[in-house]
Amino acid sequence: MEVVRALSLTLFLFGLLTWLYVTAIQITHPKFLPAHLSHIQIFPLNLRVDVVGIVGFIVSGVSFFVWQLTLAKTSRKR
């Protein structure tokens, strides 16, 4: 249970930071959204910036939900 809680909190934090990064790019440099995230042509790094933002938002939402569920289970045990 501790591993699930730590993993979900980490995914929430990094997913939220990724979404905020893409949001900042959208505000300051909107022409970068259809560009690739990196110049490296390996699967997760060659995704478009806007797709990475959407995935980060979904990952942060789902992992926050899992984190809250694990917190509720541990608080009931005490």
What descriptive keywords fit this protein?
78 residues, 72% helix
Order of helices and strands: HH
Measured between the Cα atoms of the first and last residue, the distance is: 14 Å
> Into which percent range does the helicity of residues fall?
over 70%
Low-pLDDT segments, ≥5 res? none
Put simply, the count of helices is 2
The structural class is: mainly alpha
- According to DSSP, the number of beta strands is 0
Radius of gyration: 16 Å
Write the layout of secondary structure elements.
Elements: H1 2-28, H2 49-77
Helix pairs in contact: 1-2
In short:
The chain has 78 residues and is mainly α.
General description of the model:
It is a single chain. With 78 residues, the protein is mainly alpha-helical. The chain contains 2 helices and no strands. The protein has helices at 2-28, 49-77. The longest helix is centred in the C-terminal third of the chain and has 29 residues, at 49-77. The model has no long low-confidence stretch (mean pLDDT 93).
